[in-house]
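Support reply, case 0932

Customer input (verbatim):
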Amino acid sequence: MALGRVLVVGLDPARIPGWDPEPVQAAIARGQARFGDHGIEADLCLVAPDENPEAAIVEALTRTTYACVVIGGGIRKHEPLLELFEKVVNLVRQHAPDAALAFNSSPEDTADAALQWLR
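Our regenerated output:
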């Protein structure tokens, strides 16, 4: 039984000044591999807050139909990005209204967050 496609929206660690992107990129890769372990197709939409993230997110949301959209902690947990988080939620509601929303606690448990809503 196909569980549906997932979109993961998060911050691109390579485009955030002052971060060492390698550990986060490795964690994202491990998290994405877990989708494959469950036979779930998952797309990444990694954005930088100062580079028109809304356009990239709309493009990703309208590319195909998603059963679930996971919004990463980098966008949700960093208080200066609260407005971006709100925009992401509303973009999902507008462009993928049938998709469940899920929230991970780390890049590595993203598949688990989505699975709660795909079953």
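We compared this against your earlier run and they match. Two observations from our side: The CA atoms of residues 68 and 100 lie 4 Å apart. The mean pLDDT is 94. Please reopen the case if you see a mismatch on your end.
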